[in-house]
Amino acid sequence: MLNRLNVFTKIALLVVILLILVLFLYTYSNRESVRVIEYEIQNNTKNQLSTFADSVESNIYQLSLYGMSIGQDSSIQEYQRPDYKDIPYERAKAGIAILEKMNLYNAASKWHSTITLYFPRMKKVISTDDDAYIPYEENQFTEPLSQYWTYDDNHFVWHTTVPTTAISNPSKAKLITKISFPIHHLKLLLDQNKLNNKGDPFMFHPDFGLISNSTEKSTMKSVLPSLQSAKLEAKGGFRTTLDGTEYYVSYIQSKSLGWYYVDYVPMQQILKPITISRNLFYASIAVLIVMSILVLYTLFRSVQVPLLQLVKGTNRLSAGDFSVRLNHTAHNEFSLLFARFNIMAQRIQELIENVYEEKLRRREATLKQLQSQINPHFLYNCLFYIKNMARMKNEKAVVAMALNLGEYYRYITRSENDMATIREELAMVKNYLEIQSLRLERMHFTIDVSHAILDKTVPRLTLQPIIENAVIHGLEPRAENGEIRIYGDCKDDVYMLTVEDSGLGMSDKQLEQMKYDLLKPLDENMGCGTWNVHQRLSFLYGEGAGLTYNHSSLGGVKVDIIWHDNTNK
């Protein structure tokens, strides 16, 4: 299929394929780059959040560990001695020692927490909270205690009991330890994480809302609806669009607190350099496409169009149309080529016309020579007819034959004018047919030509060869009566004379051969009469003029003589 395409189409197709290939490769490369960067951003966000979660969990684990180990402290055991019931001083001394140890732990711990010890059996409370007096209430621990950290009034609280099995029934516990810390510590860690990692972390709980860092951006609150509507797992991430900006939200659930550590990053801001680079590339491709179209258009106008004109001109020249000329207004190499083509076509046309005219003149001279020579057989037959009629004392027949024979030979031997009117041609034909009617006696003819064309001119001896063929080859071989009809008229400046006979006729193959013989060069096997008539008409009146052969309704052959009378214009 590519072999059928011209050079310009192939070049245009290659340019389009090249642009599509470059666009496809860059688009694929850009998508892969974006995908890799997005993957790294997501992993980095998750890793940072995981580091932050580990830091929080480590501090909470230390608090929990201290809450479980404090019940084994010797000071606690001593404080609960039964014999101290009657020695308040010793019990107060042991209480002070416990409080000092708890304050010492707070001083050594990263987070300052409030540690409160409840002694249900003794109805006593020891707490590191110096600002508040905490009395022991009988109905405070009637309900089972939570085994996890709980959130209450901006504090996280965790309980443990001694023994540990008393967590479900605190009233039976020897010791209940309550450890709480404010969310301020978490905010400090969030601020530190934001400073180190340039993120915007916060903590989220579906029931309690969020714990933000000190900035408290509005974007952070905008993320809340997406978090509340999402089905959160232990950890993961999702994409969301806020105010036309796409964000990646990563989260990890705290095993201790039950809250989610959340961080989000604007994907578009991070990918902005790649997006700008992509847009610049697409703009470059657009400019390249426009430039390619301009180049292809220029190539088409400057090369392809002249080539197509040259190909069409060459095809017309090879088909025999030597009048073709090429027009090219641009001043380039094709102008010179077109000028040389036009000169070549003109010279070929002049040469062909000269040769053609020379052949026509030679054929016409041959025809005139043949027609000017007296056909001995035809003349002998006419003379024998005159002799027989004279012997039979048929004076009218002798006179008629002599007069028609004289007029006939006077017309065919005249050479002063190559053109004759239809009226003159019909008069000569009538003389010829009357001679043949006198000889054959079984032939009759009719002439019905419109007066509108009687004064139109045609080459001399246009009708005579056709009438002669109709008589000799059509009527004479038949024993029956014969008929020849001659009629003519004009329509839309097209003139037509028709000759029909009732002779032997021709087959379709013979008719096609006759039509073919009119177009090919003359040879010794062809009669030159009708060929010469056809060639003279074609040369004189142009395309469409000449002879056509068809079957006649009389049974013989129908010959139409057609021409446009442009010689009188």
The total domain count is: 4
Shape label: rod-shaped
Distance between the termini: 53 Å
Beta-strand portion reads 15-25%
Strand order of the largest sheet: 2-1-5-4-3
Oligomer: single chain
Keywords: Cell membrane, Kinase, Membrane, Phosphoprotein, Transferase, Transmembrane, Transmembrane helix
Domain HAMP: 301-353
GO molecular function: kinase activity
Subcellular location: Cell membrane
Please render the helix and strand layout as text.
Layout: H1 7-69, H2 74-79, H3 88-108, E1 114-119, E2 124-127, E3 150-152, E4 155-162, E5 175-182, H4 184-197, E6 202-205, E7 209-211, H5 218-229, E8 235-242, E9 245-253, E10 260-266, H6 267-270, H7 272-318, H8 333-372, H9 376-391, H10 395-412, E11 419-421, H11 422-440, E12 443-449, E13 457-459, H12 464-475, E14 482-491, E15 494-501, H13 508-519, H14 528-541, E16 546-551, E17 557-563
Parallel strand pairs: 12-14
Antiparallel strand pairs: 1-2, 1-5, 3-4, 4-5, 6-7, 6-10, 8-9, 9-10, 11-13, 14-15, 15-17, 16-17
